Amino acid sequence: MKVNPNIFREYDVRGVADRDLTDETVTLLGRAFGTMARRKGLQDVLVGMDNRYSSPRLNKALTEGLTASGCSVRDLGTVVTPILYYSRVLYDNEAAVMITGSHNPSEDNGFKMALGNSTIYGEQIQDLRRLIEAGDFETGRGEKTSPTRCRSTCPCSRKK
Fold first, then answer.
1. Residue of 55, 87, 102, 118 with catalytic role
2. What is the pLDDT of residues 67-90, one digit of tens each?
3. Does the annotation count 55 as an active-site position?
4. How many other C-beta atoms are found inside a 10 Å radius of the C-beta of residue 134?
């Protein structure tokens, strides 16, 4: 499958939202990231998005790809990036994607992704591209939910 290889940067996937980040491309990105997560034994993926005009569309396409790979998506809605990173700890999730254009112009958008204890970068970003080009995806039927529980060590989860 063909996608613009220039969107796969060193620390994120980023491009002009209406040109480079088509629904098809973003769905494939979701399938690739979901495949990486599943192959590491992870099933739940937290997703947050910034308030750019293109973010809800990208969220929908990304979620379609993630759930097609068998991942369950816990949608945080519109949040700033540090909230997504904090939520990884709060909900004990090792897989997360933030849809954000960061400091780039408003027509741009992108994806910061985390697996395990850190964000993915470098060759891991290129691995996503290679998975897409090969069409080498896990399949399944995940679901989209809102976060509803903290990890068991959180004070709000303790039984009284």
1. 102
2. 999 999 999 999 999 999 999 999
3. no
4. 10
